[in-house]
Write a structure and sequence with these properties.
2 domains, TIM Barrel, alpha/beta, 24 strands, globular, single chain, 13% strand, methionine biosynthesis, 763 residues, 28 helices
Length: 763
Amino acid sequence: MLTQNLGYPRIGSQRQLKKACEQFWAGKLELRDLKEVARKIKEDNWQTQLDAGIDLIPCNDFSFYDHVLDTSLMLGVIPQRYQPVLSQVKTNNEVDLYFAMARGYQKNGLDITAMEMTKWLDTNYHYIVPEFTAKQQFTLFNENVIGEYVNAHKIVGDKAKPVLVGPVSYLLLGKEKEAGFERIDLIKKLVPVYIEIINRLKKQGAEWIQLDEPCLALDLTKKEQEAFEWAYRAIANRVSGVKLLVATYFEAVLDNTALAVNLPVAALHIDLVRAPEQLDDVLALIPDNLVLSLGIVDGRNVWKNDYEASLNLINKAVEKLSSNRVIIAPSCSLLHSPIDLDLETNIDPEIKNWMAFARQKLHEVVDLKHIAQGDLSRLEANKIAIAGRRTSQKVHRQEVQNRVAAITDTDATRDADFSTRQQLQRDRFNLPLFPTTTIGSFPQTDDIRLLRARLKKGELSLKEYEEQIEKATIEVIRWQEEIDLDVLVHGEFERNDMVEYFGEQLDGFLFTKNGWVQSYGSRCVKPPVIYGDVSRPNDMTVRWTKFAAEQTKKQMKGMLTGPVTILQWSFVRNDQPRELTTNQIALAIRDEVLALEKAGVGIIQIDEAAIREGLPLRKAKRAAYLTWAVNAFRLTAGGVQNQTQIHTHMCYSEFNDIIEHIAAMDADVITIETSRSQMELLQAFAHFKYPNEIGPGVYDIHSPRVPSTEEMSALLTKAAELLPAQHLWVNPDCGLKTRKWPETKSALVNMVAAAKQAREVLL
């Protein structure tokens, strides 16, 4: 029986990669120094897995920005607009090209937009979306995958296992950039390059190669299923002497089971955390020669594995296959887990004993192998921890459970329909057409972060800290007034993170010191851990929103995070349905909404950035999720008066298949990210005739480039061609927390100018 890991966190235990990349982008770090930071992270990761006893250790799972972008560079899938970077930039041009594709490029006389970014299936990790044309060509453009294997082999020997995004999933996760073809039809052009790469790795000595095909767990068309069959048959015909392992995760293979088990590969990995019920179906159809990798340690959450439950699955597989055809593994890459629980010194010891981070999960994988082989000495302590969590009074609170049980349909319903509310709100706020606003946060400078750090260390009193935050808040309000924004925000300088800030003030949450995970590029988040029943003991935002509103005669938005987003961007308890936890959070946010309204705040934004992200991967499961997710949002806003305007914001998402449910949320104003897609995402809203107001983002905040007034005006023109101009707001794509002040000021000045131009030209 073997053990394997599918991937390991690449940011470093102290976020070394984030810091190095940002210094490199700022011109403060040489490329050789950036590569040295990466080398140390990779070697430490390989050694950690070797020391834990993992038999197959992933390499090529490291990335400076995103593994799908790495695949595009490897395959030469480089959009034409980036060719000038290669031709005009004389040194480090391939690195500049790589980061230009991820972040945009605005120097050396060039101004190039970044590639589109979206969520990696149903996670909070973002990937750079490959762009394909009808005449797309593929070639081995970048050979880092070969070098990564050679370097890993020096550390872990024959245990090194290269990891690649599989060819079919790579195509399906991309996007056609012109009409008249389907990207899956490119498979016959693509597979020969994969054959070349696999044979090159085999020549270097690779014994196992992992091909990630998460799309095997999605609803596939007949043509897409045939692409899988053709691709892997073609690879098998041209490759020998190396074992290929196809990995699926995040869902059951279901109707693709026969397809998956009959691919001509050595091993198949399935996710038995998300879908343990699929094991029976797989075992019923598995051929005699296929090895099965059991994903039984949760790669996406922080809870300790229940060894007894996992052992039942292992024993069932071994009984059917024998132990030499079973591999024990995490459910997916540990990219989605914090790195090391041992670094946490402030967590309640009782709760900490229920938890495991990436490093601990490696040991769980190895423990399960030994237990399955008869060493029961590792089982008893696990049983005690699992039982302790199940019965702990820190987890269960009857009053919270009673309140959720008492929720009625009326609690989630506004008193009047949107058209009635819209007129009341227009009379109250008297905003111009194309009203301008931002999504909430402004740049969190080093000075602001230092204030928080000094407060935590006791170097500042709370009074001194709040005086400085008040000063920063007043300054940003004055600046917003100066550039003539219509609806202001207070900047959120008192907030560390849009989820963590709320979790710190809600019962049932705990926080880590080093529990960072990568969201995209150098953006790392430290998700709260929901360990018990959730409630709101006190006001959370009223003090700062009310203070900000008192500083201006303009409208000030109250800023909250919605219940589904708090759920999605936290590590969630796995001992009760997610719907129940979400409703507990929704009631807490509802109380805060009503407190803001009582304090005189007339516009309240409840961000549901992650509602699309939580959508089940299989269509058959979506209706149930959307029902409770939409209802949770409505529950937060259901108690306000008609003249109170409720906003929400959603991050990178494809909305076509859920547009009716977005409408059912009944937010007065929704803001969405649309600039990277050049307003393409608005097509769904136009086709549906979305009835409420909408703010399509007119500039990309995930890139440092500053769009011109003309560029944003052109996007507004596109938006006004699709939706009634009277329903359009003007705003950035997302919050501005991660940006720098110079680019932020320039971009927002241009944005306001674009809105004023639209008022003159489009109406």
